[in-house]
Specification:
By secondary structure, the chain is α+β, with helices and mostly antiparallel strands. It has one domain. It has three helices and four strands. The longest helix is centred in the last third of the chain and has 10 residues. The two termini are 23 Å apart.
């Protein structure tokens, strides 16, 4: 059984998000669109500037950025989706290998190709 108390959440997030733009994205747990209808409920979305993350179930399955976002139901699922998403339009996707975590230097670097 996995002991959740053994995890450092900052390090885990930095390991999951390897690009600077991913750290600049925002996970909004209770997003409401502008001018909502009476029956509109809040949803958990991933936002980057003015674009929202969506998942397509059609012929070109996968994540994309759009003016409307999908409900990822929880910040944890939104984080997982963000870790698998392509960069938004007009963003340079340069890997940062762990992001802006100030403690990153103390962690051992992964060995590429190790089994």
């Amino acid at each position: 059984m996995i002991d959740h108390s053994k995890f450092n959440t900052s390090r885990l997030v930095d390991l999951m998000l390897g690009y600077t733009w991913q750290h600049q994205a925002e996970i909004v747990p209770d997003y409401m669109p502008p001018n909502p209808r009476d029956d509109t409920r809040p949803k958990c979305v991933v936002k980057f500037v003015d674009r929202f993350l969506r998942f397509s179930h059609g012929p070109l399955q996968g994540y994309s950025w759009d003016l409307y976002g999908d409900d990822f139901h929880s910040p944890e699922l939104a984080l997982l989706a963000l870790s698998q998403a392509p960069p938004p339009p007009s963003v340079s996707a340069i890997p940062t290998h762990g992001g802006p975590c100030p403690e990153w230097a103390q962690y051992p670097k992964p060995i590429v190709g190790a089994a």
